Amino acid sequence: MTIETLNNSDVGLLDELQPSGWGTILPAHEFYTTNTDFCSSIRINIDTKIVGIGTTIIHNDIAWLGHIIVHPEYRNQGIGQLITQSLIKDSKAKKCDTIYLIATDLGAPVYIKSGFETETEYLFFKNIKAEKSWRISSNVVPFHPDHKTEIEAIDKFTSGEDRIFHLEKHLQEGFVYHNNSVVEGFYLPAFGEGLILSKTKEAGIELMKMRFTNHDNACFPKDNIHAVDFLYKYGYKEFKTAKRMRLGKKRDLNFSNIYNRIGGNIG
User: Fold this and answer.
1) Are residue 6 and residue 87 in the same domain, yes or no?
2) One domain, residues 146 and 224
Protein backbone atom coordinates (compact mmCIF):
# COMPACT_ATOMS: atom_id res chain seq x y z
CA MET A 1 0.00 0.00 0.00
CA THR A 2 1.42 3.39 -1.00
CA ILE A 3 0.43 7.04 -0.63
CA GLU A 4 0.98 9.31 -3.62
CA THR A 5 -0.12 12.73 -4.83
CA LEU A 6 -3.36 12.65 -6.81
CA ASN A 7 -2.65 14.52 -10.05
CA ASN A 8 -4.96 16.00 -12.64
CA SER A 9 -4.10 13.12 -14.98
CA ASP A 10 -5.57 10.70 -12.39
CA VAL A 11 -9.04 12.25 -12.27
CA GLY A 12 -10.40 10.09 -15.08
CA LEU A 13 -9.56 7.00 -13.01
CA LEU A 14 -11.86 7.88 -10.10
CA ASP A 15 -15.18 6.56 -11.44
CA GLU A 16 -14.79 3.31 -9.49
CA LEU A 17 -14.70 5.29 -6.24
CA GLN A 18 -17.93 7.21 -6.92
CA PRO A 19 -20.07 6.81 -3.75
CA SER A 20 -23.73 5.96 -4.17
CA GLY A 21 -26.00 8.91 -3.49
CA TRP A 22 -23.31 11.56 -4.04
CA GLY A 23 -23.10 13.96 -6.93
CA THR A 24 -20.31 13.13 -9.37
CA ILE A 25 -16.90 13.55 -7.72
CA LEU A 26 -14.97 14.33 -10.91
CA PRO A 27 -15.55 18.12 -11.13
CA ALA A 28 -14.39 18.60 -7.54
CA HIS A 29 -11.19 16.70 -8.25
CA GLU A 30 -10.62 18.67 -11.43
CA PHE A 31 -10.80 21.74 -9.18
CA TYR A 32 -8.51 20.32 -6.50
CA THR A 33 -5.84 19.15 -8.91
CA THR A 34 -5.71 22.45 -10.79
CA ASN A 35 -5.65 24.63 -7.65
CA THR A 36 -2.64 23.11 -5.95
CA ASP A 37 -1.69 26.38 -4.26
CA PHE A 38 -4.36 25.73 -1.61
CA CYS A 39 -5.56 22.16 -2.36
CA SER A 40 -3.59 18.97 -1.84
CA SER A 41 -5.01 15.58 -2.88
CA ILE A 42 -3.67 12.11 -2.19
CA ARG A 43 -4.33 8.64 -3.55
CA ILE A 44 -3.88 5.33 -1.78
CA ASN A 45 -2.68 2.55 -4.06
CA ILE A 46 -2.64 -1.20 -3.77
CA ASP A 47 -0.41 -2.36 -6.61
CA THR A 48 -1.53 0.00 -9.40
CA LYS A 49 -5.15 0.35 -8.27
CA ILE A 50 -6.47 3.51 -6.56
CA VAL A 51 -8.35 2.29 -3.48
CA GLY A 52 -8.76 5.55 -1.60
CA ILE A 53 -8.54 9.33 -1.98
CA GLY A 54 -8.75 12.50 0.10
CA THR A 55 -8.05 16.21 -0.13
CA THR A 56 -6.87 19.03 2.13
CA ILE A 57 -8.21 22.53 1.35
CA ILE A 58 -6.25 25.30 3.11
CA HIS A 59 -7.73 28.65 4.17
CA ASN A 60 -4.73 30.33 5.79
CA ASP A 61 -4.55 28.67 9.24
CA ILE A 62 -7.72 26.59 8.80
CA ALA A 63 -7.97 23.35 6.81
CA TRP A 64 -10.92 21.44 5.44
CA LEU A 65 -10.75 17.74 4.64
CA GLY A 66 -12.84 16.78 1.64
CA HIS A 67 -13.82 13.75 -0.43
CA ILE A 68 -12.31 11.10 1.83
CA ILE A 69 -13.44 8.04 -0.11
CA VAL A 70 -12.49 4.37 0.07
CA HIS A 71 -13.26 1.92 -2.73
CA PRO A 72 -16.20 -0.29 -1.62
CA GLU A 73 -14.15 -3.46 -2.05
CA TYR A 74 -11.41 -2.20 0.30
CA ARG A 75 -13.38 -0.86 3.25
CA ASN A 76 -12.80 -1.95 6.86
CA GLN A 77 -9.07 -2.34 6.21
CA GLY A 78 -7.90 0.87 7.88
CA ILE A 79 -7.60 2.81 4.63
CA GLY A 80 -10.01 5.56 5.71
CA GLN A 81 -7.98 6.05 8.90
CA LEU A 82 -4.75 6.17 6.88
CA ILE A 83 -6.16 8.85 4.56
CA THR A 84 -7.47 10.90 7.48
CA GLN A 85 -4.21 10.77 9.40
CA SER A 86 -2.22 11.69 6.27
CA LEU A 87 -4.43 14.72 5.64
CA ILE A 88 -4.20 15.81 9.28
CA LYS A 89 -0.40 15.58 9.11
CA ASP A 90 -0.40 17.66 5.92
CA SER A 91 -2.68 20.28 7.50
CA LYS A 92 -0.53 20.64 10.60
CA ALA A 93 2.62 20.89 8.49
CA LYS A 94 0.98 23.88 6.79
CA LYS A 95 0.42 25.56 10.19
CA CYS A 96 -3.31 24.89 10.40
CA ASP A 97 -4.47 24.62 14.00
CA THR A 98 -8.14 24.04 13.15
CA ILE A 99 -9.32 21.25 10.85
CA TYR A 100 -12.94 20.81 9.72
CA LEU A 101 -14.91 18.23 7.80
CA ILE A 102 -18.49 17.16 7.12
CA ALA A 103 -18.98 13.52 8.07
CA THR A 104 -21.31 10.95 6.59
CA ASP A 105 -22.64 8.24 8.89
CA LEU A 106 -20.07 5.89 7.34
CA GLY A 107 -17.14 8.22 7.94
CA ALA A 108 -17.98 9.62 11.38
CA PRO A 109 -16.56 6.68 13.43
CA VAL A 110 -13.24 7.01 11.57
CA TYR A 111 -12.99 10.71 12.35
CA ILE A 112 -13.92 10.24 16.00
CA LYS A 113 -11.00 7.82 16.31
CA SER A 114 -8.76 10.57 14.92
CA GLY A 115 -9.89 13.01 17.61
CA PHE A 116 -12.59 14.99 15.77
CA GLU A 117 -15.60 16.22 17.73
CA THR A 118 -19.02 17.25 16.49
CA GLU A 119 -19.74 21.00 16.45
CA THR A 120 -23.20 20.84 14.91
CA GLU A 121 -25.33 18.89 12.47
CA TYR A 122 -26.45 19.90 9.00
CA LEU A 123 -30.04 19.18 7.96
CA PHE A 124 -30.82 18.11 4.40
CA PHE A 125 -34.15 18.82 2.67
CA LYS A 126 -35.40 17.78 -0.76
CA ASN A 127 -38.39 18.02 -3.11
CA ILE A 128 -39.09 21.63 -2.17
CA LYS A 129 -41.52 23.41 -4.48
CA ALA A 130 -41.53 27.20 -4.59
CA GLU A 131 -44.88 28.62 -3.50
CA LYS A 132 -46.60 31.25 -5.65
CA SER A 133 -46.56 33.53 -2.63
CA TRP A 134 -42.76 33.43 -2.50
CA ARG A 135 -42.25 36.55 -4.57
CA ILE A 136 -38.70 37.85 -4.67
CA SER A 137 -38.29 40.89 -2.46
CA SER A 138 -37.39 44.21 -4.07
CA ASN A 139 -34.58 44.38 -1.52
CA VAL A 140 -32.81 41.56 -3.37
CA VAL A 141 -30.54 43.15 -5.96
CA PRO A 142 -27.65 41.99 -8.14
CA PHE A 143 -24.15 42.25 -6.74
CA HIS A 144 -22.30 45.53 -7.17
CA PRO A 145 -18.56 45.95 -6.42
CA ASP A 146 -19.48 48.33 -3.60
CA HIS A 147 -21.03 45.34 -1.77
CA LYS A 148 -17.79 43.33 -1.56
CA THR A 149 -16.54 44.71 1.76
CA GLU A 150 -19.86 44.00 3.52
CA ILE A 151 -20.04 40.51 1.99
CA GLU A 152 -16.54 39.75 3.21
CA ALA A 153 -17.46 40.92 6.71
CA ILE A 154 -20.60 38.75 6.82
CA ASP A 155 -18.67 35.74 5.59
CA LYS A 156 -15.86 36.15 8.11
CA PHE A 157 -18.29 36.75 10.99
CA THR A 158 -20.25 33.65 10.02
CA SER A 159 -17.47 31.23 9.10
CA GLY A 160 -14.57 32.49 11.20
CA GLU A 161 -12.41 32.05 8.11
CA ASP A 162 -10.51 34.28 5.69
CA ARG A 163 -11.85 32.90 2.42
CA ILE A 164 -12.79 35.89 0.29
CA PHE A 165 -10.45 34.47 -2.37
CA HIS A 166 -13.10 31.76 -2.87
CA LEU A 167 -16.09 34.07 -2.85
CA GLU A 168 -14.76 36.77 -5.15
CA LYS A 169 -14.70 34.33 -8.07
CA HIS A 170 -18.50 34.12 -7.86
CA LEU A 171 -19.56 37.60 -6.78
CA GLN A 172 -20.46 38.88 -10.24
CA GLU A 173 -23.23 36.27 -10.48
CA GLY A 174 -24.43 36.92 -6.94
CA PHE A 175 -27.21 38.82 -5.20
CA VAL A 176 -27.50 40.75 -1.95
CA TYR A 177 -30.36 41.69 0.33
CA HIS A 178 -29.96 45.46 0.58
CA ASN A 179 -31.92 47.20 3.33
CA ASN A 180 -31.49 50.93 4.08
CA SER A 181 -28.11 50.97 2.30
CA VAL A 182 -26.87 47.99 4.35
CA VAL A 183 -26.09 44.51 2.98
CA GLU A 184 -27.82 42.11 5.38
CA GLY A 185 -27.22 38.91 3.42
CA PHE A 186 -25.98 37.49 0.14
CA TYR A 187 -26.55 34.58 -2.24
CA LEU A 188 -23.92 33.18 -4.57
CA PRO A 189 -25.70 30.81 -7.00
CA ALA A 190 -22.47 29.65 -8.64
CA PHE A 191 -20.56 28.90 -5.44
CA GLY A 192 -20.98 25.24 -4.55
CA GLU A 193 -24.60 24.39 -3.83
CA GLY A 194 -25.53 28.09 -3.72
CA LEU A 195 -24.12 29.73 -0.61
CA ILE A 196 -26.55 31.91 1.38
CA LEU A 197 -25.32 33.79 4.43
CA SER A 198 -27.37 36.38 6.29
CA LYS A 199 -27.19 38.30 9.53
CA THR A 200 -30.97 38.84 9.63
CA LYS A 201 -33.94 36.48 9.39
CA GLU A 202 -35.70 38.59 6.75
CA ALA A 203 -32.73 38.64 4.40
CA GLY A 204 -32.00 34.94 4.83
CA ILE A 205 -35.57 33.81 4.15
CA GLU A 206 -35.96 36.09 1.12
CA LEU A 207 -32.72 34.78 -0.38
CA MET A 208 -33.86 31.20 0.28
CA LYS A 209 -37.08 31.92 -1.61
CA MET A 210 -35.05 33.20 -4.53
CA ARG A 211 -32.87 30.08 -4.56
CA PHE A 212 -35.93 27.82 -4.55
CA THR A 213 -36.98 29.22 -7.92
CA ASN A 214 -34.18 27.08 -9.40
CA HIS A 215 -33.47 24.44 -6.74
CA ASP A 216 -35.60 21.96 -4.83
CA ASN A 217 -33.12 21.15 -2.07
CA ALA A 218 -31.50 22.86 0.91
CA CYS A 219 -28.83 22.20 3.52
CA PHE A 220 -28.02 24.29 6.59
CA PRO A 221 -27.09 23.81 10.26
CA LYS A 222 -29.75 22.85 12.79
CA ASP A 223 -28.75 26.02 14.69
CA ASN A 224 -30.54 28.15 12.08
CA ILE A 225 -33.97 27.97 13.68
CA HIS A 226 -35.37 30.57 11.26
CA ALA A 227 -34.56 28.44 8.21
CA VAL A 228 -35.81 25.30 9.99
CA ASP A 229 -39.10 26.95 10.99
CA PHE A 230 -39.60 28.32 7.48
CA LEU A 231 -39.39 24.89 5.84
CA TYR A 232 -41.30 23.15 8.64
CA LYS A 233 -44.09 25.71 8.19
CA TYR A 234 -44.60 24.46 4.63
CA GLY A 235 -44.51 20.81 5.62
CA TYR A 236 -40.90 19.95 4.75
CA LYS A 237 -38.77 17.82 7.07
CA GLU A 238 -35.13 16.88 6.84
CA PHE A 239 -34.53 13.49 5.24
CA LYS A 240 -30.98 13.07 6.57
CA THR A 241 -28.34 14.78 8.68
CA ALA A 242 -24.55 15.03 8.64
CA LYS A 243 -22.10 15.97 11.37
CA ARG A 244 -19.86 19.01 11.03
CA MET A 245 -16.71 18.05 12.94
CA ARG A 246 -13.62 19.84 14.19
CA LEU A 247 -10.12 18.87 15.26
CA GLY A 248 -8.03 21.46 17.09
CA LYS A 249 -8.65 25.08 18.02
CA LYS A 250 -12.27 26.18 18.37
CA ARG A 251 -13.15 29.29 16.32
CA ASP A 252 -15.73 32.02 16.74
CA LEU A 253 -18.41 31.43 14.13
CA ASN A 254 -22.16 31.75 13.71
CA PHE A 255 -23.98 28.71 12.34
CA SER A 256 -27.32 30.48 12.63
CA ASN A 257 -26.31 32.78 9.74
CA ILE A 258 -25.98 29.89 7.25
CA TYR A 259 -29.15 29.57 5.16
CA ASN A 260 -27.57 27.26 2.59
CA ARG A 261 -24.16 25.62 2.70
CA ILE A 262 -21.38 25.62 0.09
CA GLY A 263 -20.81 21.86 0.07
CA GLY A 264 -19.34 18.94 1.97
CA ASN A 265 -15.78 19.99 1.24
CA ILE A 266 -15.73 23.53 2.70
CA GLY A 267 -18.90 23.82 4.76
Assistant:
1) yes
2) yes
